[in-house]
């Protein structure tokens, strides 16, 4: 599979990143190992997780996803073949609010490295912003980690456009480490936040965009096509409340029509739409069954026509 290079780095990845929030949540350790094996067997090589995953599961405290991923890499002996992405700053059982202080980052990276059973992280990302912490303090912590060889590059996720711009400007003025990637919420349904708030910024500063919720919590997989499809679980009810409206129905109808036209899946069409966007480097997507990974491979191969992209743009217009 052809790799892409994240801007201003030497990180080369297959253009769909596996989202590790499912480890120790909807997938136990053995199932996680199985799906990770299938993922890399298909030629993919980038995995995104966070120090907070999956604290929301009863009995978990945070860090369980990293621990599963670390065990898998250690058993498979493939750390050098994986582009490893994790995050810091988010909430978990022992950290009830965002924290981007230097002290917190320098402690948390050690916990992450231990759980991941590695001595370096390829892409270390600010997960959530603590606005009362000076930007310089956060970047100087990353500077120290990069000098120590524990982190190769840094990225940003849930920073406001204003704080992200300020961070980049400070990096340019002081030669502190600069964010190389941006991980925003972006998909066919959730477009406005990125397109109105971040897209110009990402293009101006050559940030490689690696969107999360690429499949809108499963809505864009085609799993939900009528009211009855939302009755299977409490989580499905949440998807219904957020996405099942006139606009959502129009989006999924168009996605399913194109999936039929190309003899592929709704997931593949939804991911291919993202991959066709010039600012998007690689969407982040999770899978809970090996069969779901087929859509990843199909998305990479699917070349939507300009007319098809226009149809999806129009159906999802906000």
Structural write-up:
It is a single chain. With 318 residues, the chain is of the alpha/beta class. Helix content is 43%, strand content 13%. It contains twelve helices and ten strands. It has helices at 29-41, 64-76, 102-116, 135-147, 161-174, 192-197, 199-204, 234-243, 246-262, 266-275, 293-301, 306-315; strands spanning 4-5, 12-13, 17-19, 46-48, 83-88, 121-128, 151-158, 179-182, 208-209, 284-285. The strands form two sheets. The chain has an eight-stranded parallel sheet with strand order 9-8-7-6-5-4-3-10, covered by helices on one side. Strands 1-2 form a two-stranded antiparallel sheet. Helix 10 (266-275) crosses helix 11. The longest helix is centred in the C-terminal third of the chain and has 17 residues, at 246-262. It starts with a strand and ends with a helix. The model has no long low-confidence stretch (mean pLDDT 97).
